[in-house]
Amino acid sequence: MAATDKALAGLRQMIASGELGPGAKFPPEPELCDHLGVSRSSLREAVRSLGALGVIESRHGSGTYVSALDPAAIIGRFSLSVELIPLEGVLELLEVRRVLEAHATAAAAARQDPELAARLGTVLDQLESTTDATEIQHLDAEFHGLICAAGGNPTVTALTDVIRGRGGHYRIFEPGADFDAIKRTSDRGHRAILAAITTRDPAAAATAASAHIAQTELWLRALRPDPQPALP
């Protein structure tokens, strides 16, 4: 095992076992090197790797600490890797998103929040009235983001945001022969989701969300668009 890998494995074990819990301060560097049997350079590289994942944070003048290990915050860091996944991988991720958003949409319907239905209705009014590709993508993201947040599980919200962020690079709402048909079908799907939330029907909400995302998968498989830069 390479020295950096050894250091990384040792730190992971200390955190996973609870020896260093959320918010705990790391021992002094010489002590930690002796404990893990690694050099300072290997330890520092391992710390940088875990820092990039949101597991460790360095506080200037204070030391190195385990982060709060918040699942949503850590999952949000996945975007650094997910952004590299090509279309075939994105299609696999959409299957995961379909399951997660069906659950979140059902939970949002069960919570019976009339303010949510009103906010979603406003977003859909704007979405249905525009043909601008950039605006469509922003409003679509807002619609689904509101629902996931209302589902009450920040980890689900973070994971769906990561998946949706990469999927947004493969744009289906671009001017072309299929634009009108895609837009109409998408608008109907959104309205079905909103209707289920408004009538407080979790089963119908889950079905509508799953069907809507499955339709997006079908369009991506059929159109196979090239990836584009992220929208501002």
What does this protein structure show overall?
The protein is mostly helical and 232 residues long. The protein is built from 11 helices and 2 strands. The protein has helices at 3-16, 29-36, 40-52, 71-76, 79-82, 87-111, 114-128, 133-150, 154-167, 179-198, 202-223, and strands at residues 56-59, 63-66. The longest helix is centred in the middle third of the chain and has 25 residues, at 87-111.
Question: Approximately how much beta-strand content do the residues carry?
Answer: under 5%
Outline: elongated
Task: Give me the side-by-side strand order of the main sheet.
Answer: 1-2
| End-to-end C-alpha gap | 43 Å
Oligomerization state of this entry?
single chain
Radius of gyration: 22 Å
Tally of helical runs: 11
Note the main sheet.
2 strands, antiparallel
Estimate the helix proportion, in percent. 55-70%
The low-confidence parts are none
Based on secondary structure, the structural category is mainly alpha
Total count of strands? 2
Q: Could you give the order of the helices and strands?
A: HHHEEHHHHHHHH
What is the overall pLDDT average?
Answer: 92
Domain HTH gntR-type: 1-69
Organism: Kribbella speibonae
Protein name: FadR family transcriptional regulator
Keywords: DNA-binding, Transcription, Transcription regulation
